[in-house]
């Protein structure tokens, strides 16, 4: 930068006092100070913007690298899964061909299975009629465990009420 000593500043001040005059010198000095401050702020803003742009570019490059790495990992995983699936499927084909002959269902088998299914569904969904329960000694209504214990507990002379 410019090397300004005390003697050089004094010479510049004397020349400015002679050229500008004592009345206008304070206004010119104030204006020079404000212009110098504006220039410093402008340079600071430009430096900050350049550093932001550089950081943004670095972040974009890092983001691109991360995406490429993630894509390569994803493709590697998909390839290994596809390879493992093909190995399992080929092993199943060999195992199925060696152990059991192909199964074919006939119409008689299908009709027998349909009848079984209908019969089981009827058993699941139908309720036992009340007259059948009464005749054969089945329960006609649900009784809690506490009520069953109270029914068969021997009764003493005292009442069981707490009140």
Automatic annotation (TrEMBL):
<keyword id="KW-0997">Cell inner membrane</keyword>
<comment type="similarity">
    <text>Belongs to the TatB family.</text>
</comment>
<dbReference type="Pfam" id="PF02416">
    <property type="entry name" value="TatA_B_E"/>
</dbReference>
<keyword id="KW-0811">Translocation</keyword>
<keyword id="KW-0812">Transmembrane</keyword>
<keyword id="KW-1133">Transmembrane helix</keyword>
<keyword id="KW-0813">Transport</keyword>
<keyword id="KW-0472">Membrane</keyword>
<keyword id="KW-1003">Cell membrane</keyword>
<dbReference type="InterPro" id="IPR018448">
    <property type="entry name" value="TatB"/>
</dbReference>
<dbReference type="InterPro" id="IPR003369">
    <property type="entry name" value="TatA/B/E"/>
</dbReference>
<dbReference type="GO" id="GO:0043953">
    <property type="term" value="P:protein transport by the Tat complex"/>
</dbReference>
<comment type="subunit">
    <text>The Tat system comprises two distinct complexes: a TatABC complex, containing multiple copies of TatA, TatB and TatC subunits, and a separate TatA complex, containing only TatA subunits. Substrates initially bind to the TatABC complex, which probably triggers association of the separate TatA complex to form the active translocon.</text>
</comment>
<dbReference type="GO" id="GO:0033281">
    <property type="term" value="C:TAT protein transport complex"/>
</dbReference>
<protein>
    <recommendedName>
        <fullName>Sec-independent protein translocase protein TatB</fullName>
    </recommendedName>
</protein>
<dbReference type="GO" id="GO:0008320">
    <property type="term" value="F:protein transmembrane transporter activity"/>
</dbReference>
<comment type="function">
    <text>Part of the twin-arginine translocation (Tat) system that transports large folded proteins containing a characteristic twin-arginine motif in their signal peptide across membranes. Together with TatC, TatB is part of a receptor directly interacting with Tat signal peptides. TatB may form an oligomeric binding site that transiently accommodates folded Tat precursor proteins before their translocation.</text>
</comment>
<keyword id="KW-0653">Protein transport</keyword>
């Amino acid at each position: 930068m410019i090397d300004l000593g005390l003697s050089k500043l004094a010479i510049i001040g004397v020349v400015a006092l002679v050229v500008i005059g004592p009345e206008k010198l304070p206004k010119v000095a104030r204006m020079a100070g404000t212009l110098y401050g504006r220039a410093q702020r402008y340079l600071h803003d430009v430096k900050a913007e350049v550093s932001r742009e550089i950081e943004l570019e670095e972040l974009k490059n890092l983001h691109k690298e991360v995406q490429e790495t993630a894509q390569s990992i994803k493709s590697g995983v998909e390839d290994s899964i596809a390879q493992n699936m093909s190995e399992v499927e080929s092993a199943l084909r060999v195992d199925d061909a060696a152990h059991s002959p192909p199964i074919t269902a006939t119409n008689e088998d299908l009709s027998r299975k349909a009848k079984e299914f209908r019969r089981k569904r009827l058993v699941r969904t139908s309720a036992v009629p009340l007259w059948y329960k009464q005749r054969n000694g089945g329960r006609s209504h649900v009784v809690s465990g506490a009520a069953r214990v109270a029914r068969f507990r021997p009764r003493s002379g005292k009442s069981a009420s707490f009140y």
